[in-house]
């Protein structure tokens, strides 16, 4: 094809080749294959990078299921790898390990006053921690769409928290610190300490957010399936990411019914036709994206071996059924020609 060079390659090679990348987010609707895809991307990155960390920010942790290995809040080496680590954190939990102890009452008051601030704080603490760890690349297996986008709003949430604290402080002057003293809260856990913490956190988050908005450092991989709702959600996600100025140029379409076996089932054939309709729309809408198609397997993709086997579809483009369609069309045309030829021969014989 003359214009084939203009079409982005249908693999995730671009991610593996972009050696400046530090943060890779993988997100999409529930159950479409985010954990499977982020696990495989982290495994592929581990081949070309000195060290890779995969983090699940989904409260329903499933990295442990994918790798069939138990993970915790501390990065743990994945079995069979020398440079791939995994950790599971829950941004919605007020993590004492992140240094929240002693601030409980004031902090929970604050948390109640500003929705999302506790989540923002623990996400911030986690990022602070991860930044000191010096991984070459960090892959995020995010929670379903809405949740992911909330993570990206955390700097704004923290800013709001800070403003609220400041206005409280100016309104009530020393009253607040008197109250905290009366209730036995030490100065180090008082309002100044909280404001200090919020400010410190804001700096970390702002710094990281700047990195998230830098396409050299960060990209977002959208995972979906070839169905109407998923197409719709992907478009919403892409638009939100654009709003947050976060780079995205990879879409992974999972659970594609491969048309390379002779399928007898009417149901499957109908599903394939439906999928093809949405696949076409994906390719039309996102012609500047790398679109990787993954087959629907008869079994789950769990365990390092299964993930490794499945990873070949991330680096070798799937032969589109379109090509097969073309072959079928040619065959149809050929058989039609043969029929015409036979008819012509009959006519000839008549003469
Ligand atoms: N192409 C596929 N063929 C067959 N099974 C698959 C495929 N992709 C993923 N799976 C399986 O489907 C299940 C869901 O996949 P996965 O956990 O990756 O989705 P998810 O988007 O992370 O889900 P959640 O939103 O619940 O976190 C898993 O059991 C996984 O092994
Ligand atoms: Mg998951």
Give keywords.
single chain, 351 residues, alpha/beta, Rossmann fold, 2 domains, 52% helix, elongated, binds adenosine-5'-triphosphate, binds magnesium ion
Describe this structure as you would to a colleague.
The structure is a single chain. The chain is α/β, with parallel strands linked by helices and 351 residues long. It folds into two domains: 4-319, Rossmann fold (3-Layer(aba) Sandwich); 321-351. Helix content is 52%, strand content 12%. The protein has 14 helices and eight strands. It has an eight-stranded mixed sheet with strand order 3-4-2-5-1-6-7-8, with helices on both faces. Helix 11 links the parallel strand 7 (250-256) and strand 8 (290-295). Helix 5 crosses helix 7. It is elongated. It binds adenosine-5'-triphosphate and magnesium ion. Residues 34-35, 58, 62, 141 line the site of magnesium ion. Adenosine-5'-triphosphate binds next to helix 2 and strand 7.
